[in-house]
Amino acid sequence: MYHIKIFSVGKTKEQWLTDAVNEYEKRLCSTVKFECIWAKHDEQLKALSAKEKHLVLLDPNGKLMTSEQFSEFLVDQLECGGSKLTLIIGGSDGIPKELKGKGPQLSLSPLTFTHQMTRLILIEQIYRALEIEKGSNYHRA
User: Fold this and answer.
1) Does 113 show up as a binding residue in the annotation?
2) I want to staple 54 with a disulfide (CB 3.0 to 4.6 A). Which of 11, 81, 95, 113 is the partner?
3) Boundaries of domain holding 69
């Protein structure tokens, strides 16, 4: 079983977003144990991240990937991290400079999303990536 933590600034306020995130977490529960941890500000995000061993940083300046590339990247990162991975969603100014260089940087899109939407998109992409790895039809449905 994989263990994925997602750190970000601010909690999800919209119920429909919480419901959507919960749906993907439910779909993944046989494969992935999720922990979503909300920081109030960048300083708290840095403190939480300091305890983690294997980080991937989500930042607007990070590398863009196709879903297939992300699938390969995610599986590689999970294997390198002993099935554990922490993904960090940067604040409104991106990843704090103190965290840059602590792990690969990834961008979900050149578009700007709210932190709440980013969490949902990220979890859906994790689900899609693992479905691609399994060879299911989800990616092409």
Assistant:
1) yes
2) 81
3) 2-140
pLDDT at 119: 94
Q: How far is residue 8 from each of residues 5, 53, 79, measured CA to CA in Å?
A: 10, 17, 23
pLDDT reading at 20 higher than 80: yes
CA distance 63 to 89: 14
Tell whether residue 135 is among the known ligand binding residues.
no
pLDDT per residue as tens digits for the range 24-49? 999 999 999 999 999 988 889 999 99
> Is there a binding annotation on residue 70?
no
58 is in an annotated binding site: yes
* pLDDT exceeds 70 at position 112: yes
- Residue 9's CATH number: 3.40.1280.10
Does 110 carry a binding-site annotation?
A: yes
Q: Give me the number of domains the chain comprises.
A: 1
Which residues contact residue 65 at a Cβ distance below 8 angstroms, ignoring those fewer than 6 apart? 73, 106
